[in-house]
Amino acid sequence: MAGPLEQFEIKPIVRILIEGVDLSFTNSALWMVIAVAAVYYFVVLGTRQHALVPGRLQSLVELSYEFVAGLVRENAGKEGMRFFPLIFTLFMFIFMGNMLGMIPGSFTFTSHIIVTFFMALCVWVGVTVYGFYLHGARFLTFFAPSGAPVYMLPLLVPIEILSYCVRPISLSVRLFVNMMAGHTMMKVFAGFIIALGVFGVAPLAIAVALTGFEFAVAFLQAYVFTVLTCLYLHDAIHMH
Amino acid sequence: MSKRSAVAGWLLGLGPLVLAAGQALAASEVGQSTADIVHEAEHESGGMPQLDASTFATQILWLIISFVVLYYLLKRKALPRVADILEARQERISADLDRAAALRVDAEAAFEQYEAVVAEAQAKAQAEIKATREAIAADVAGRTATLDRDLAARIAAAERTVAAARDKALGELEGVAVEVAQAATERLIGVQVGDEEARAALARARQEVA
């Protein structure tokens, strides 16, 4: 039987080698493209009727729109709304990636550290650059907490800088570990079902519970990633 | 707008960077084609596929492509549609609210007008009632006065008639008394009493009685 980690293997579909670098179109890339199409058509089909009183799909679209808009407004402030399309894209992309990963036999591209880390890194670098763009060199005072006694600064500033630099790592590892651990657990328990024969009912029950749990995690982790992005954006705009 | 496209451009600009990083990674795996690396990493290490660095370049590349495409599609095509719908609904709602407020103002004005009309009508009616009552009272007073006068005249006339009748009756009574006195005197003592004498005696007797 396939090991629990086999589901995370990257398998090339169309091999592309450019100057010795493997840029193949893989199962991961396929599901990214499916996620893009799913998100795009979700919104477009949902708004096709342009109804004053929304139907089911339109309600979902409006719900996600208002949800992310509320998230940005609450966590990043009104000034953060200029980044709403970017953050909406981020949320929907991660959310759809997590959800599509729940389809049996699919691939969860958010279960790869390099994907989540690259997204987190872009968020972190982008937010930092925006902070310097807004405040110039004054943004450096972000690392000296206001109200702290001067003699504490030699201790506080390195801690602040360190915690700031750890952000992309914590942001990415959280999402990646959650997705990977959840899917591994499901696979492990699913493996027990056949192996235990009649007593496989127990792991089956656990696998069913885990599936429900994983749907919650799929949403929650996309939410957490988005909220933290908004909070980092808030830091860049308001500096505490 | 330009800042957003700058973000997208910045993301796209990472492409060559990925390529360079991928080359560096590939170079570190001595003498192996990347396709081989994928397979051997699976079979040899049996470890987490997530740590297989040879797949990093393709994942990052397709992540950038997917994300930028999705960002473009959402920002240019999809999100404005949602915003339009929400805005249209908001406008509709606020227009309805405005209209409701205007109608309310109208209704209040109409109510005030109605109240004014009612008050005016009431005042007019009150005035009419008062005038009518006064007119009737005046009429009644006039008629009462006329009636009183009439009655007084009639009473006076009646009294006069009664007084005349009484005087006449008294006068006749005196004649009868004189005759009775003459007749009684003649029967009792057989004396003929003249009219004058009898009359004087009667007057004396009346005075004594009185």
What are the salient characteristics of this protein?
heterodimer, A: 240 residues, mainly alpha, two-stranded antiparallel sheet, two-stranded antiparallel ribbon, 6 helices, 4 strands, globular, B: 210 residues, 0% strand, rod-shaped
Short description:
The complex is a heterodimer of chains A (240) and B (210). With 240 residues, chain A is mainly alpha-helical. Chain A is 68% helix and 4% strand.
Spans of chain B with pLDDT under 50 lasting ≥5 residues? 29-45
Question: How widely separated are the two ends of chain A?
Answer: 52 Å
| Percent of sequence in beta strands of chain A | under 5%
How many H/I helical runs of chain B?
4
Whole-number mean pLDDT of chain B: 82
The figure for the number of domains of chain A is 1
User: Using only CA atoms, what is the Rg of chain A?
Assistant: 21 Å
Give me the number of helical elements of chain A: 6
The ordered string of helix (H) and strand (E) elements of chain B is HHHH
Shape of chain A: globular
Any idea what the shape of chain B is?
rod-shaped
Q: How much helicity do the residues of chain A have? A: 55-70%
User: How many DSSP E strands of chain B?
Assistant: 0
The major beta sheet of chain B can be summarized as: none
List low-confidence stretches of chain A. Answer: none
What does this structure look like?
The complex is a heterodimer of chains A (about 240) and B (about 210). With about 240 residues, chain A is mainly alpha-helical. Chain A contains 6 helices and 4 strands; from the N terminus they run E-E-E-E-H-H-H-H-H-H. In chain A, the strands form 2 sheets. Chain A has a two-stranded antiparallel sheet. In chain A, strand 2 (about 15-20) and strand 3 form a beta hairpin. In chain A, helix 1 crosses helix 3 (about 85-100) and helix 4 (about 115-135) runs antiparallel to helix 5 (about 155-195). The model of chain A has no long low-confidence stretch (mean pLDDT about 90). With about 210 residues, chain B is mostly helical. Chain B starts with a helix and ends with a helix. Among the domains of chain B are: about 1-95; about 165-210. Mean pLDDT of chain B is about 80; it is low at about 30-45. The longest helix of chain B has about 130 residues, at about 55-190. At the A-B interface, strand 2, strand 3, strand 4, helix 1 and helix 2 of A face helix 1, helix 2 and helix 3 of B.
